[in-house]
């Protein structure tokens, strides 16, 4: 028997340690597989730590096996990310998954997934309608789901968990999902907590602040990020004709011209503010930036193991 955790570990922190310990305690007969993103993330970021480092630290804290989630799934929208991860889990005959959840209501997520699966025509019609209105794909998906179920899923872990369960239901995978309630995070009202979100940790790291209360990892500047490579991205966009940029994966609908128009923004944050819209989320834009940086026309053919960045040396655990 085996149980899978799907993870990015960007960065690995105390919440992940808690998840591994909880899984080992509550599923003592199961081997723990971590389906782990490689050197890049679902939101189009460069991972703070490389795949090898993340694998070693996960094994140190309780994982039994690590399986790399291929780049072609790891750097895509949530539904594609989930599709790839669950396909791998099924192929390895792993019969359980566990994921963090704000609601901790796995039964409701299953019910919503079944409604989604049984009402594909209505869902797809609502999705198409919302996209025509200019909604981003995530917002259009949420709109379509609410149309057929009367419910919204708005919290990030529940959204991703729902995508996992959708894959189980749609493909009739012999996999059972379990949820783990997210622990109360550090705040002014809860200063003794040793758990924070990965987003907050990345902010602390970017500000060169200590994360020792929240993670066993240590980072030195400069750390790997899209912001770190933004000058290189500027150079590529300035020097590459728009028609060549348009051949890059995810570059469509004239977004290459929008990039050229705003490429003189002084940093990544201001560039994202200038180009994002109702249609294009920051994550969608960051994936496009990532693909331009590494000249990716087809993510299925991109070998991320050949990418070696100096900033990955500025990490330890």
Task: Describe this entry's structure for a reader.
It catalyses: cytidine(34) in elongator tRNA(Met) + acetate + ATP = N(4)-acetylcytidine(34) in elongator tRNA(Met) + AMP + diphosphate. Its main location: cytoplasm. Belongs to the TmcAL family. The mean pLDDT is about 95. The protein contains 14 helices and seven strands. The protein starts with a strand and ends with a strand. It has three domains: about 1-105 and about 155-185, Rossmann fold, CATH 3.40.50; about 120-150, no CATH class; about 225-310, no CATH class. α5 packs across α8 (about 155-170). It is an alpha/beta fold and about 325 residues long. It has helices at about 15-25, 50-60, 70-75, 80-90, 105-120, 120-130, 135-150, 155-170, 200-205, 230-240, 240-245, 255-260, 270-275, 280-295, and strands spanning about 1-5, 30-35, 65-70, 95-100, 175-180, 220, 315.
């Amino acid at each position: 028997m085996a149980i899978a955790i799907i993870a990015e570990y960007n960065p690995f922190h105390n919440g992940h340690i808690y998840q591994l310990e909880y899984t080992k305690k509550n599923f003592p007969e199961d081997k723990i597989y971590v389906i782990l993103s490689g050197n890049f993330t679902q939101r189009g970021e460069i991972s703070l730590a490389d795949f090898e480092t993340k694998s070693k630290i996960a094994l140190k804290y309780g994982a039994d096996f690590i399986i790399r989630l291929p780049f072609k799934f790891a750097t895509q929208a949530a539904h594609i990310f989930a599709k790839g991860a669950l396909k791998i889990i099924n192929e390895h005959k792993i019969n359980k998954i566990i994921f963090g959840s704000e609601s901790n209501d796995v039964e409701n997520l299953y019910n919503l997934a079944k409604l989604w699966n049984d009402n594909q025509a209505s869902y797809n019609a609502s999705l198409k309608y919302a996209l025509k209105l200019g909604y981003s794909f995530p917002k259009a998906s949420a709109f379509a789901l609410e149309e057929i179920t009367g419910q919204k899923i708005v919290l990030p872990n529940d959204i991703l968990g729902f995508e996992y369960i959708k894959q189980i239901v749609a493909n009739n995978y012999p996999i059972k999902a379990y949820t783990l309630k997210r622990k109360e995070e550090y705040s002014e009202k809860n200063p003794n907590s040793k758990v924070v979100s990965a987003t907050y940790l990345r902010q602390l790291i970017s500000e060169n602040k200590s994360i020792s209360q929240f993670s066993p990892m240590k980072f030195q500047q400069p750390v790997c990020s899209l912001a770190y490579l933004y000058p290189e991205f500027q150079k590529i966009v300035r020097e590459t004709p728009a028609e060549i940029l348009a051949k890059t994966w995810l570059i469509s609908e004239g977004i290459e011209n929008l990039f050229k128009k705003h490429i003189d923004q002084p940093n990544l944050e201001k560039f994202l503010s200038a180009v994002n819209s109702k249609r294009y989320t920051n994550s969608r834009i960051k994936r496009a930036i990532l693909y331009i940086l590494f000249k990716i026309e087809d993510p299925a053919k991109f070998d991320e193991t050949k990418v070696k960045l100096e900033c990955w040396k500025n990490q330890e655990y």
